[in-house]
Design brief:
By secondary structure, this protein is mostly beta strands. The chain has one helix at residues 105-108; strands at residues 4-7, 10-13, 18-24, 33-39, 46-51, 58-60, 68-73, 78-83, 92-99, 116-117, 121-126. It starts with a strand and ends with a strand.
Length: 127
């Protein structure tokens, strides 16, 4: 079992920055690929970014590439999402998720394949 708790959300003006963090319980954090997903009101959940177990590989959605950076610290059981140049369309609830057996880019982008999810943190970007 892995429990995930997100933090760092809030209200920010367009062009600003936020850093989301996700703290994971358990001693097997490094066995999981980690991902960030988001869901805006009235929209389906969408992939944002993912990072491999050893942090050697990252993938991003086109909408956030160049603005967001995912990172992890396996010693501290945390994964972070640094979000810069925020836009109103980035407004959503952001969720972190853990995946035990996913390796390929195609599968890591699919939220339905992740094993554990956090409760989410709200990010609101005002124009």
């Amino acid at each position: 079992q892995v429990q995930l708790v997100e933090s760092g959300g809030g209200l920010v003006q367009a062009g600003g920055s936020l850093r989301l963090s996700c703290a994971a319980s358990g001693r097997t954090f490094s066995s999981y690929a980690m991902g960030w997903f988001r869901q805006a009101p009235g929209k389906e959940r969408e992939f944002v970014a993912t990072i491999s177990r050893s942090a050697t590989t990252t993938y991003y959605a086109d909408a956030v590439k160049g603005r967001f950076t995912i990172s992890r610290d396996n010693a501290k059981n945390t994964v972070s999402l640094q979000m810069n140049s925020l836009k109103p369309e980035d407004t959503a609830i952001y969720y972190c998720a853990a995946a035990r057996n996913l390796i390929t880019e195609v599968t890591l982008r699919r939220g339905s394949l992740y094993d554990y999810w956090g409760q989410g943190t709200q990010v609101t970007v005002s124009s």
